[in-house]
Amino acid sequence: MVIDKLNFLTPGLPAAAQNKGYKEGLNIIKNMDLDGLEVEFVHGVRMNEDTQKLVKSFIDENNLTLTCHGPFYINLNSAEEEKIEASIERILETARVGKNIGAYSITFHAAFYMKQNPDEVYKTVYKSMERICTQLEKENNTVWIRPETTGKGTQWGTFEEIVQLSKEFKYVLPCIDFSHIHARYNGIYNTYDEFSKIFEYLGNELGQDIFNNFHAHLAGIEYGAKGEKQHLIFNESDMNYKDLLKVFKKYDVKGALVCESPNIEEDTKLLKDYYLSL
After folding, report:
1. Structural domains in the chain?
2. What is the 3-state secondary structure (H, E, C) of 188-244?
3. Mean pLDDT for each consecutive 10-residue tract of the chain (278 residues)?
4. Under a CB-based contact definition with an 8 Å cutoff, are residues 245 and 272 in contact?
């Protein structure tokens, strides 16, 4: 799939859809001149074949962009082997449905440190990712696999760890959650220069092509000494989305920016309108 611009996606169906399903939700997205959505499989990968066909047909006809978020119940560093196996299967299921509906990228929270040495956790996550990528290659599934940067110090997923993992596999790249990074480091990474350092790091480590194939999350966020607490609407948070979007513009980023605000479609529209005004 060729992505030729920065696409602004809602996190799941718009609130205005009022549980009326994908057809209603996708029509709202289209009518608001938004660019698509991230399908939220956070409580399990559940979408029947008819709905998959409906979604695929709609996005093809209307040139919308889709990504998918895997279930929350994933921990590739669990102490219990059966939970690792279940986590691998959930990621594979997300990728399979993602391919069926035309998503170009999937993301998920990969692991917890479980009070272990981060280097050892990296090795454990690597083994699972190797299995995932090998299986998807056998299935000719080339959806991008994107471990997400995480918002708490107990969670595996600094941007350095995920960038390093991305170097190891052909179809693995980061999902950069700027709100999580801001929360994890207790309020830094919130200025033009600080955002620029993240982009510089990505370009230096992964090459400039990363900016033509980007997947990111953004929302207002509440945080404390232990990191992320909850997502907020932008007007109730200190998240400096305006300077961040200026850096997106500077780097001419193409891909998907998912607005994970509780104010789903309104804040997604806020981001897109501001970006287009630059």
Report:
1. 6-277 (3.20.20.150)
2. CCCCHHHHHHHHHHHHHHHCHHHHHCEEEEECEEEEECCEEEEEECHHHCCCCHHHH
3. 91 93 96 98 95 97 97 97 98 98 98 97 98 98 98 97 98 98 97 98 97 98 96 97 98 98 97 98
4. no
- Helices 159-166 & 118-138, crossing angle to 10 degrees? 40
Reported as half-sphere exposure (CB side, CA atoms, 13 A), residue 64 has a value of 27
Helix, strand, or coil (residue 100): helix
What's the CA gap between 211 and 209, in Å, rounded?
Answer: 5
Asked if 259 and 10 count as a contact pair (C-beta separation under 8 A), the reply is: yes
Question: CA–CA distance from 218 to each of 12, 92, 241 (Å)?
Answer: 14, 25, 8
111 and 125 Cβ atoms separated by less than 8 Å? yes
pLDDT digits (tens, 9 = 90+) for 72-123: 999 999 999 999 999 999 999 999 999 999 999 999 999 999 999 999 999 9
Query: What's the pTM value of the predicted model, to 2 decimals?
Result: 0.97
Residue 95 corresponds to which tokens in the numbers above? Answer: 């990728």
Q: What is the CA radius of gyration of the chain?
A: 18
C-beta of residue 28 within 8 angstroms of C-beta of residue 65: no
Q: Which residues does residue 176 pair with via DSSP β-bridges, in sequence order?
A: 216
- In one-letter notation, the amino acid at residue 192 is Y
